[in-house]
Amino acid sequence: MKNLRPLGFLTLLILAFAFIQCSDDDVKLTTPVKIRLTDAPAQYDKVNIDIQQIQFHSSNNENEENGWKEMNLINPGVYDLLQFNNGIDTLLVDQELPSGNVSQMRLILGENNTVVIDGVSYDLDTPSAQTSGLKFQIHDDFLAGIEYKLWIDFDAARSIVETGNGNYKLKPVIRTFNEATTGAISGIISPAEALPVIHAVMGTDTISTIAEENGNFLIKGLNAGTYKLAIEPVDGYLEKEVEDITVSIENITDTGTIDIETVAN
């Protein structure tokens, strides 16, 4: 009868490595994902949007129905878009999601969508948003262990269409941006009473905002490049352009105070 020899150190090392490799194959890589809601200002009292679901379409979702996976929305319900502009936003999603390529996201709305104009509330007709959802292209990667931050940016002013007879329809104009691949422009309008619409223009791309009551403004989600600011104040003030504003990734370009002249009497 042979005596069994104890396993050598090298043999044990090989077996341990093989066990770790097998265990790694079973590990599902995940990415911490944060999705925030922001808005370009509009001349309404309120724009109330009923957000019920956010879903994403990933290369890893073959087992999900039609490839779509629902995210854990922190607070489903009504959001007044006009509360989230000039750098203010609100967190919609904060969770670990499977790593991999993400092609699309979609926003599914409920029925409680309204616009308030001069103190009067009007229902917003949103049939397509309530059924199939509002789709927007992402085409980005959820990298394992690296936090992914995404903003959903409504353009409230362009998203509401008056259809006549006091009726309004929501035809959402939405863009998305990732902080790691975009920059921003900030500044102060003087006098603040000019309350201008401010357009950041580069080529055929235009992103807009409205200065706050104190004159401050912030335009986020801008691709790197050289921009022109086209400033359109309220009646009584002259329009103004500011050229050659350089935007770089992950930086805010501060234009300082921009003086607006009054119309000569």
Helix content: 10-25%
Rg on CA atoms, Å? 25 Å
Report the β-strand fraction as a percent range. Answer: over 45%
Q: Which class do the helix and strand fractions yield?
A: mainly beta
- Unreliable stretches covering 5 or more consecutive residues: 10-26
Summarize model confidence as the mean pLDDT.
84
Cα-to-Cα separation, first versus last residue = 116 Å
Sheet of most strands: 9 strands, mixed
Count of DSSP E strands? 20
Shape: globular
Number of domains: 2
Topology order in helix (H) and strand (E) letters: HEEEEEEEEHEEHEEEEEEEEEE
Q: How many helical stretches?
A: 3
Written overview of the protein:
- Helix content is 10%, strand content 54%.
- With 265 residues, the protein is mainly beta.
- The chain has two domains: 27-180; 182-265, Sandwich (Immunoglobulin-like), CATH 2.60.40.1120.
- Strands 2, 3, 4, 6, 7, 8, 9, 11 and 12 form a nine-stranded mixed beta sheet that branches. Strands 5-1-10-13 form a four-stranded mixed beta sheet.
- The longest helix is centred in the N-terminal third of the chain and has 18 residues, at 9-26.
- Keywords: Signal.
- Residues 30-172 form the DUF4382 domain.
- This is DUF4382 domain-containing protein.
